[in-house]
Amino acid sequence: PSLSFSRSPLDADPRCWSATRLASQQATDILSKDHRRSVATSCIDCLFLPLEAAHLLTHSGHAATPMRLSHALILFAMVSTSQSLSTPSPPKSCVTSKPSAVLFDIDGTLAHTDPVHFAVFRDLLLDVNGFNGGDSIDEEFFRANISGRQNLRIAADFFPDWSVERREEWSAMKEARFRDAASSSMMERKMPGLDRVREWMEASSVRRAAVTNAPRPNAEAIIGGIGYDGWFETLVIGDECERAKPDPFPYQEACRNLGVDPRNCIVFEDSPSGAKAGTACGAYVIGILSGNDSSALLDAGCSLLIEDFDDPKLWKYLEQASG
């Protein structure tokens, strides 16, 4: 990394400024070596030095020798940054043989329902006095604050002054409005290629589960509306779990119900919240670009991005995984 420090506190003593620049370069050089972890461990006992460095930065006349300041800053930089540099990100799962199970999110994955959710949220939030300054929410707001999240968390963020009961009533009203709006067009909203994946799974004897943060009436309405009633072996509802997505618990619960190892499972998700849950569970997560940005899904841990279930990239992967 490029380490930098503000010059303004050091203007009184050019020697200290020079020492600071030297310390920055030395710390960067040290942290680029392969032994970062051992450096960090050896510096743990020197955690008091950032305080000394801060004191020197603001009181340059008190023992502010360039050498002492340089040493303090080097140790401060190493301790502050070595952990993030030396701790590798958890490896992404990679299913290299036929998967034991495929776990599907529902909204935005089985069916392209996010436009309906957005429209319902937009209209209802306009009726909440003062929300968002009285302005209508846009799709960017929806993706950042609503998509894939549990209703209770959304309502708690949006209405912190409301009682739990009032939040639950508002959320229930919103979901009832969604079901009314989406019921007549659910089959048309089924994700392209889903039936093809279904045929492949049945022919390959791959287990299946649906895992969602949506309330059960919504989940059942969508599954039934696309003609998949009774097809999933287990349906896991975030509201009925100890913890909802982005916690991995719902996906772990689905794997427990199926008796499979999550590391040999594929998860299909369309939201960063769900992708984080699937990744943390240990599954191979495939992101569907039905509403969220590709960068957001990749940052959340997706290993592969597809437009829908007909995407050639998906079938190339499944053919390779199945041998």
Please characterize this protein's 3D structure.
- By secondary structure, the protein is α/β, with parallel strands linked by helices.
- 51% of the residues lie in helices and 8% in strands.
- The chain has 15 helices and 6 strands.
- The protein has helices at 14-31, 36-43, 49-58, 66-86, 114-126, 139-145, 151-158, 164-182, 186-189, 194-204, 216-225, 249-258, 272-281, 294-299, 312-322; strands at 101-104, 207-212, 234-237, 265-269, 284-288, 304-306.
- Strand 5 (284-288), helix 14 (294-299) and strand 6 form a beta-alpha-beta unit.
- It is globular, with a radius of gyration of 26 Å.
- The model is unreliable at 1-64 and 69-91 (pLDDT under 50).
Which SSEs are present, and which pair or pack?
Blueprint: H1 14-31, H2 36-43, H3 49-58, H4 66-86, E1 101-104, H5 114-126, H6 139-145, H7 151-158, H8 164-182, H9 186-189, H10 194-204, E2 207-212, H11 216-225, E3 234-237, H12 249-258, E4 265-269, H13 272-281, E5 284-288, H14 294-299, E6 304-306, H15 312-322
Parallel strand pairs: 1-2, 1-4, 2-3, 4-5, 5-6
Helix pairs in contact: 1-4, 2-4, 3-4, 5-8, 7-8
Total E-strand runs: 6
Major sheet summary line: 6 strands, parallel
Assign a percent range to the helix content.
Answer: 40-55%
Output the radius of gyration. Answer: 26 Å
